[in-house]
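P.,

For your records, the input lines for the assembly:
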Amino acid sequence: MVLAQILLNGILLGGLYGLMALGMALVWGVLNIVNLSHGALIMLGGYVVYYLFTIGGIDPFVALPIAMLVMFAVGFLLQYYLLNLVVRSKMLNTLLITFGLDVVLTYLAQLTFSADFRTINPPYAGANFALFGLTVPSVRLAAFVVAIVLAAALWFLLHRMALGRAIRATAQNLVAARLYGVNPSVLYAVTFGIGTALAGAAGGLYGMIANLTPYIGASLTAKSFVIAIIGGLSNPFYVIFGGIFVGIAESLTALYIGPTYSDVISFGLLVVVLVLRPNRTLRTS
Amino acid sequence: MNRPLLIVSLLVAAGLATLPWLGSDTMIQFGINALLLATLAQSWNILGGFTGYVSFGNSVFYGLGTYGTAIAMTNYNLPFGVGLAIGAVVAMIAALLVGLPILRLRGPYFAIATLGLNGAMMAIFSNLPIAGSNIGLVLPLTRNDAMFYELALGLLVACSLTVLWISRARFGMGLIAVREDEDAAGSMGVNATRYKVAALVMASFFTAIAGGIHAYWSTFVDPASAFDSTLNVRMVISVVFGGPGTVLGPVIGSFILSTVYEVLASQISTAAALLFGVVIVLAVIFMPKGLADILRSRRNLTWRYFIRNIRENRL
Amino acid sequence: MTQTAAKPGPKTVIEARGITKRFQGLVSVNAVSFSIAEDEILGVIGPNGAGKTTMVNMLSGTYTPNEGEILFEGTRINEVPTFRRAHMGIARTFQVMKPFPGMTALENVTVGALFGRDGGEKSMPAARERAREWLEFTGLGHRIDNPADSLGGPDRKRLEFAKALAMGPRLLLLDEVMAGLNPVEVDEVVDLIKKMRGKGIAMLVIEHVVKAIRSLSDRVMVLHHGEKIADGDPTAVLADPRVIEAYLGKRRT
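Structure tokens returned:
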């Protein structure tokens, strides 16, 4: 029974992890940028929802789409005015610039929001219900559902809408994108914006489950990366599955080895996955 | 690096060696920190600068050097030199174990694999009784800043001479070929994995010694200070700012940044960290080849240099 | 060894026995066999997508064949990694030129001399000297200190040659080195390849320029949809109706 409960916790948490990685996988697959500031953007999204809730008095789940819009704008501007300047250079440079961005966002957040722990604490935060003898925390279940819905929405956007087709064409070939009559700079910015909006949603949900601090970015980036590698970059649902896999692995580690080892597990999983399938091309095909 | 520049550099190093007799205590302490950071940057340069493989996990070797020295000296009462050696060996073994699987991977995989490394090591050492778990270890006190200063300077010189050798040797040509085009390098006979792992192991050696010196100097080691992920930020930024793959760039870059950091940190440390981030971003955009390239092309350096860098890389 | 010694004539350098490469079920190269001897030039032609580059990649070590065997001087090398094949004496040029952009022409070629056959020249000055000689040989002597990425098309091809030759190869794989050159430049490259004959190197030349292939090759092999449809004397092969239909016919339209 304990094991079943642990598995359930892992799955629910894993859905959120998958959502975290979704934006990273999208940006990586389409723009070929491994965004090291992805975790910081998740953190930023968390604070947006936090302030909408505490100052604006808006229910966090209602605040989520607002935060996504805000984060879309942030992502759009970052890509359009900054990252587009280096997007053609070596991957080393895009890694470095997003790393620098991560540092900037982290310490800006510390200056603006202070280093205190914050939690998004709506009245129903502690609510849960019993199902087949298991305890289901309502907020975590809702977060899981939101993650699935957003993955589905992303899939729909990429495969059923003209914008999505243009984005996928860009992933293949920049020249092809021009055939769609889209300005690649704008298309890149939109794609990065979508990735950032997804990060923002993940941050809002994360803030309802765990503590927000300005420093959570780096470890969330690493986690998102692990999941993006496990799930691949081609299909949003695979990314969610990747998240669930990591969520379960973490919950089991916490139970059997000790909760402080979750970072070790992420790293171990990453190495194992990379070594087992090193030649697999990750870009969308 | 040509002969006159080498001679000037060695003279500057000799001049720096006299600082303990001339400078104040605070200057010596600042000097130790700056020299150790420069060593870390120069070590990072061996892999990052020459092969283009960015590591965000070199702080782990620093931490292992720190703990190796601390455990040897506190738990086994071994002399400082033996502690340093133990730390270095442990770090090199770790570099080998980590490098062999993940350096077979190309580009970003390696970089991000190393992101998780620091957290993982910190978790392990926080649970390790021999390392004092969460509390850490206290080393025997030695009030001899001049000695630590000369040690740090010697280490930096040794590390820089190693990089100078690399830049002129067959080994270095192989590393640079890997950076420029790994497929082509392989088809020309460069065993890329072996070269990259060798570079990481060399880097881990100097990084660990720097950690050991710092441990004995500060007389206290705990997981948070040993596995300090901001060290990675500082290494990366010093090299990127100074000039990756050059001999003097990382040293000059880290000296400048140490100075700026010292001035700012006495005011507000967050602002200093923020500035580091901004510098990385701007450096990548305007001077992706580093300060060294700017100095090299100083004769015809105009605003066009920066515009050209942007033109080459923008969408 | 005794087998090859027993055979009359020049020594076989590379031999492929029924090599096949599939990518996710699609057959790119299908059961192709051939061999090249010392001082022999094998021309390979075929329409785009016929599997020519895939074949070169199997010989150089980028891909491992799914079936068949590759023998280099009598040794099976199917699983030997790329860099070790370079040490054995296999050198290649890339269809998309891959100079080391941040290095000068001399440094580029020096890498070849430092790491080529038998692990290359161990001393830097000697390697540099060897690189200088090959740059002279390929007609780049006046540009040795130019950065590789500042060289124009034809000079880049020369650089690729010099890099490969500096490795001291036994087998040289030339993948479309004439693509994008004008007729005068093509003639220069043809002369260069002819100049290399007599150095004991086996050469495989992939080319679209039929005229060049005709004048260079001792034998011509034609690939079509991954299969070998002809192999033999250049004049006879290029007159073969099947070859004309598969390849030349389309080009003439």
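Two observations worth noting. The longest helix of chain B spans residues 25-51. Chain B is about 75% helix and 0% strand.

Regards
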